[in-house]
Design brief:
It is built from 12 helices and 12 strands. The chain is an alpha/beta fold and 363 residues long. The chain starts with 13 loop residues before the first strand and ends in a 22-residue tail after the last helix.
Length: 363
């Protein structure tokens, strides 16, 4: 557990995280936690219920203005279309803002499926889908399901589920088990006061990299005085390095079968003779997957370097499965890269990613 030793595998694209959940589940509390514990990273936000955000703290840190878009006039999925959302994303993703991650905090009545569709439909080259995070109130979960049966569908679409307010639930284990049974391979993270490790969602930069710019860490040394100590829950991670190239078909079998709870994969892959010119940056969140070929630098060591992050993952088993993807054969099958190229965006492949997240779950 802890920070990964490998830099982010995604290129210079800003992840856009959709934060959803019914009224009172703790979305704003979680967002404020991320803002205050960002590790020096700068978060841009698109929010509906702006009045619930700690405006004073955000204003001091400069998160208002260039870094926040307020939509106070209704539900985001009804108020804008994909083109309008691109206008907001363009404002937040401008290099001058220095933003590292964008969080769309939906209203409690928003439809997560439509928000995810809009992010995936974005034509903005500077952003990439960062996952659907669904927050549920453990203490009120049964009542919420009774009043809003659509929550089962929302959970089936989620990439990460934060089961919040566990300290108020009399039968926390039962609620956790029930939530897990309603998800489709999502990472399920228990939490109190919305405290999850930000590394689940984005790569935290050291605060000292923000020379001359205040971060929320600088402003909020006292933010969790009533709940001091480590986070309620962290994450499990695995770092994998190989100086032997990976065989693309084997790696795609591994990725297609990635287990429940494995939320993020990032890093670089060397496919050896299958593409001697390029290494492939890989970005996976939940069921979303994309590869980015980029030329090897002259004299650069040709290594595969991957970091896997999840909740309750079996690092030893995953490491062995990745070892099984290695292949030192000197020649390549001309069709071997087809599976990888399905997830490359650009002239050499179709639009990357998968729309599995958008399918309605079976009845």
């Amino acid at each position: 557990m802890g920070n990964s030793p490998v830099d982010s595998g995604s290129p210079q694209q800003i992840p856009v995280v959709v934060l959803a959940g019914f009224l009172g589940s703790g979305k704003t509390t979680l967002l404020n936690h991320l803002l205050h514990r960002s590790g020096g990273s700068r978060i841009g936000a698109i929010v509906n219920d702006f009045g619930a955000i700690e405006i004073d703290a955000m204003a001091v840190a400069g998160a208002l203005g260039d870094s926040t878009v307020s939509l106070g006039n209704g539900c985001l999925c009804c108020a804008v279309d994909a083109g309008e959302l691109d206008l907001y994303l363009d404002r937040l993703a401008a290099p001058a803002t220095g933003i590292d991650v964008i969080v769309i905090e939906a209203s409690g009545l928003a439809e997560p499926q439509e928000l995810v569709r809009m992010v995936l439909a974005s034509e903005h080259p500077g952003i990439v889908y960062g996952g659907l995070v669904e927050v549920v109130d453990a203490a009120e979960f049964d009542a919420t399901r009774a009043g809003h049966p659509e929550i089962d569908r929302h959970l089936a679409l989620a990439d990460l589920v934060v089961v919040n307010k566990l300290d108020r639930a009399g039968d926390a284990d039962r609620v956790l088990g029930l939530v897990r049974s309603l998800t489709d391979r999502a990472a399920v993270v228990p939490a109190t006061y919305g405290r999850i490790d930000p590394e689940f969602l984005f790569d935290c930069r050291p605060t000292e990299e923000r020379v001359g710019q205040l971060s929320f860490d600088d402003l909020d040394d006292h933010g969790d005085d009533n709940h001091t100590g480590h986070l309620h829950t962290g994450y499990d991670s695995l770092s994998f390095t190989s100086d032997v190239p990976l065989e693309p078909r084997r790696l795609m079998r591994f990725l297609d079968g990635r287990p429940e709870g494995l939320y993020r994969i990032k890093g670089y892959v060397d496919f050896g003779p299958y593409d001697p010119v390029n290494r492939y940056a890989v970005h996976a969140v939940g069921r979303f997957l994309r590869f980015y070929p980029e030329p090897w630098a002259p004299g650069e060591a040709r290594l595969t370097q991957l970091v896997l992050i999840g909740s309750g993952i079996d690092a030893d088993t995953l490491g062995k499965e990745l070892q099984g993807c290695r292949n030192d054969a000197p020649h390549a099958d001309e069709h071997g890269m087809w599976g990888v190229l399905r997830y490359v965006q650009g002239p050499d492949g179709p639009d990357g990613g998968t729309e599995a997240d958008l399918e309605d779950p079976p009845a």
